[in-house]
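W.,

You were right to be curious about this one. When I first looked at the sequence I had no strong expectations either way, so I just let the prediction run and decided to look at it fresh. Below is the sequence, 157 residues in total, followed by the output.
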Amino acid sequence: MSAGRRIAAAVVLVLVFRDVVPPARAEGDLNGSANPMRAISKDHLSGFRQRPLFNPARAEPPAPAAVPEPVAPASAPPPPQEPPPPIHLVGIINGAQNLAIIRLETGGKTSVVSTGDRIGAWTVTVLPTGLRLRNDQRNADFALFAHAAKPPGDPPP
């Protein structure tokens, strides 16, 4: 291609595209005259918030539902405490192994128990003057004699 043809082609291109390309902005121009969106007020652009472009329904997303505070589940009431078994202490045998003789008040059956035996949910401890049944943190004491069941300092009847 000759130099004359190149110059002619360049002139044609300049004439054809001169209206397409915007003029260069001056360096101090802060009005944004090159930006066509500057002429539109922000108040007129609220549709983009109200009708989101990438939401298929083009509807405003619903407001998030208020999440209720988690409610702690009510703790189950403690199971009813089992009362001590209905027994009557008949005798104590002190020796190498302490033993207690008891009679069940229901049925009248007589049994011999030692420390560590179980009567229902209660664990037996044979004491020198009585019997102690223990269930978790509860104790039930049975005295061989009536005055042994009273706290010290109280006179016997």
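Here's what jumped out at me. The radius of gyration is 50 Å. And, maybe more interesting for your project: The domain at 87-149 is CATH 2.30.30.830 (SH3 type barrels.).

Coffee later to discuss?

I.
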